[in-house]
């Protein structure tokens, strides 16, 4: 369903398990950034009532996920560290069309968002199946399902509003671009690292 070209190396789990506090902190900030991204899309495209309605719900859900991760951090006696830079997301951002019209920019932002959700979903699935911690295994299974729904929301709006754009072609270009980007990741205890 996700169409990703390159799966995460399962050995990434060993890196994650070597520093659970770090993956949880990184994950918490990923959820905050996802909520902020949804709000940014709303701000830039407020004339689309259905998009506003759905992305408000999505932003709220991302903030709930942030709180859930933060609760796990506190429960385990960890501290929420400082916000982390997400180099993977910054590299994906380079794909987005900066000089196109407003519609092209919206479609690219929606596809960019769908890609981040797709990769997060793929990573959460791997965590749910391979991490040795039963609490985190269940937690990441539940979040995997949520991320898949977010992916579908973003792709759906790109297709709905991008009628004059070959959205499937643009999505395939992003899939190809992401496959090259992700080759440099999977080596740190971060969600996209």
Automatic annotation (TrEMBL):
Gene3D superfamilies linked to this entry: 1.20.1260.10
InterPro entries: Ferritin-like, Ferritin-like_SF, tRNA-Hydrxlase_MiaE
PANTHER family reported in the protein's UniProt record: TRNA 2-(METHYLSULFANYL)-N(6)-ISOPENTENYLADENOSINE(37) HYDROXYLASE, TRNA-(MS[2]IO[6]A)-HYDROXYLASE
Protein name: tRNA-(Ms[2]io[6]A)-hydroxylase
Taxonomy of the source species: Bacteria, Pseudomonadati, Bacteroidota, Flavobacteriia, Flavobacteriales
